[in-house]
Amino acid sequence: MTTHRQELARLRKIEGQIRGVQKMIDDKRYCIDILTQLSSVVGAIMSVEENILDRHLKGCVQESFRKGSREDRQRKVEEVIEALRRFRRY
Description:
Elements lengths: L3 H23 L4 H37 L2 H19 L2
Helix pairs in contact: 1-2, 2-3
């Protein structure tokens, strides 16, 4: 399981990739090359998203089910369902 610090490092790398794509566009590089790089960026962002969701489920949600009230558990379930709905939109 990754930590927030590890995800920050990955996001900084993604930030560098975005700057690289901007430079490719400024340099009028071949569109397919730009799209390839953008696909890589999207995949990296999705990986960060999955890691953070994994940590949330294994940490916050699991803890709620161990020690939380029934209402707290229900809130966590609803929170995860809503998050998954949002993630599926793209």
